[in-house]
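I hope you will forgive my troubling you with a question about protein structure. Here, with my thanks, is the record as I have it:
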Amino acid sequence: MSDMLVKLYELKDDWGFLAEQEELGITIRKPIGPEKHLVVAWVRGNFGDAWASETDRALSNTPISSFVAIQEGSLIGFACYDATALGFFGPVGVVESSRGKGIGRALLLACLLDMKLKGYGYAIIGAAGPQEFYSRNVGAVEIPDSSPGLWRTWLKRGEA
């Protein structure tokens, strides 16, 4: 999968998606320090070790570069940036039973608008999939010849 580029300076500073999610009983927010172990364990259990490692990294940043989606006191989604590399968005995941409610879009926008507020002009969506989702929601465009990109020399289980 190729990387994609988002022009953050072209995103509208509209956080209305938070209210839309609240109407569905879903809270989108940054986790706080004492929740780190819970969030990392949840990501590991639902999406695997690699994404858990990236989430751990995002939760160790100051300020935290991650958002979570919570419904009825339970995690149902997460998103990170500045986890794999500076300026990179991802990973992002929503449990299958909660998909189709705009949660992934809300988590994406929360991260990208947070990046914009920090002064980033662009964001890279690493190994983006599905690309149509990103182009439709934030105007992302494919970066030519970007696969495998940053992951070219990625150490995988059993190679250490």
The longest helix spans residues 103-117. The chain has a mean pLDDT of 95. Strands lie at 4-7, 26-29, 66-71, 74-81, 88-94, 122-125, 141-142. Residues 6 and 123 are 5 Å apart (CA to CA).
